Amino acid sequence: MHGPSEARPVPLTEECIPMFGIIQVLLSRVRKRPAWHFTAAAFVGVGLGATLFSITQHVSWFVGWYWAVVTATTVGYGDVVPHNVIGRIIAMATMLTVIPLLAAAFADWSSSLATLHLRRMLGMHHIQAQDHWVILGFTSLIPHLVPDLLKHHPNVVLVADDIDRGHLPDHDGMELLVGDPTNPHVLAKAHLDEARQILIVGPTDGDVLMTAIEAHRLAPNSPTLAVTERANAVQALRDLGIDAVDTQSWLNTFILERLEADAAREVPPNAPT
Known about the structure:
InterPro entries: K_chnl_dom, NAD(P)-bd_dom_sf, RCK_N, Trk_Ktr_HKT_K-transport. This is RCK N-terminal domain-containing protein. It is a multi-pass membrane protein. It holds the Pfam family TrkA_N. There is one protein chain. This protein is of the alpha/beta class. It folds into two domains: 12-122, Helix Hairpins (Orthogonal Bundle); 133-266, Rossmann fold. It has nine helices and six strands; from the N terminus they run H-H-H-H-E-H-E-E-H-E-H-E-H-E-H. It has a six-stranded parallel beta sheet with strand order 3-2-1-4-5-6, sandwiched between helices. Helix 7 (205-218) links the parallel strand 4 and strand 5 (224-227).
């Protein structure tokens, strides 16, 4: 029977309960990616090595984890070392399994981040946006329009084919989606149905008409403006229920009016003017 001044030892099994709980949660969230598998396997290897080391070397569970992490990360301070054959076997097994797993995990994560950055530069990533402006198509006016547009609205998505991002401003709110704006699969990535405003431009009225018809089919309730050169194209679009203007020279004025109207709608009724 332990006296009042004696500390009751905590069984090792009770100490290990948090570790196994963490491992269970981690494994339940492993996804179908090599990096997740490598990371989870490395974490399990570190936990197993820490547990076995603490048991065989008669050290606390925390010291066992400290040794396992120092060993797995190849730091090797040398302040905690195995003192018998079984401890050295555990050390060799930990080093031969966990270190390659961590290297593979870091390599895969780095590759994923590099791929994501490349896809973002090329406009191949999936846009996640709501209440945003979408510009379908590209003309010489767009590089001059986008900076003014970004001053009023922080999220703009441009969908265009064969475009140099160097012509566009470097802004966090500017998303470039490279692809044919008449392709429904490309348009689906721009979330047209959640856009605040859709602006359609193009080198020819035929391109504008085709893009407008497809955009209106996918997002009939989203406000849409198409810019054409000829009055008959404007009338054809209006017959389809799509707002249109017949010259690009009016574009800046029209959009700024839309932005001011949007800003006015967002001001609370009791706000001071």
